[in-house]
Input
Amino acid sequence: MLYFSDPFDAVIFDMDGTLLDTEAVFRTIVFDVCAELGFEMTDLVHKSIVGSSHEATQKLLVEAYGVSFPYALFDDMCRSHMHRKVALSPVPLKPGAADLLAALGAQGVPLAVATSSRRAHAETHLSGAGILEHFDTIITRDDVSNPKPHPEPYLTAARRLGAAPRHCVAFEDSLAGVRAAHAAGMRTVMVPDLVDPTEDIRALCHAVIDSLEHARFQLASSPGDATGSQ
Output
């Protein structure tokens, strides 16, 4: 059970690994594509790129495998593999995501997505999962100059929702995402997916929970009312 002692005005979600079970699907793709290209992906390297932007992922993979690593080809192949998988079956929602979005929507809470993915990818997956219509705005890599762990994606989402960052709650699964939301001044809730929080990351979080199924909101000022004044 997750409680907040102070009112909040908006909720912002990361997408991959937080709302959608994308990271588990993408993990298999990353290992397969690296093998096809003649490189051995490892758990350590894979975990380092979870939640990273395309720029950060390229840097990490080149550092891991050398300048000969064909990142552009790797990226294209991963996209192709993902498109084929999605064509067969949409990426599933994480447990509790649908119920949480429905409950917040019923209470009139403004909702946003802040993702490091490109817009085409984000809208395709959110639509396929049947949750695109829940969000008032979607911030993607195409909307910002600085991706996570920079706070710009979250600050942009808050601005579009008309909410002060300190009155926003952010849900994240990755280390980079937690750093971004915390740096934006938001109450950050981590829902670990493939990467567990370090002690430093825990210190940045309002809470760390096992699943969105465990997320509930209660306001001290008005129980049952999910929004507060700025």
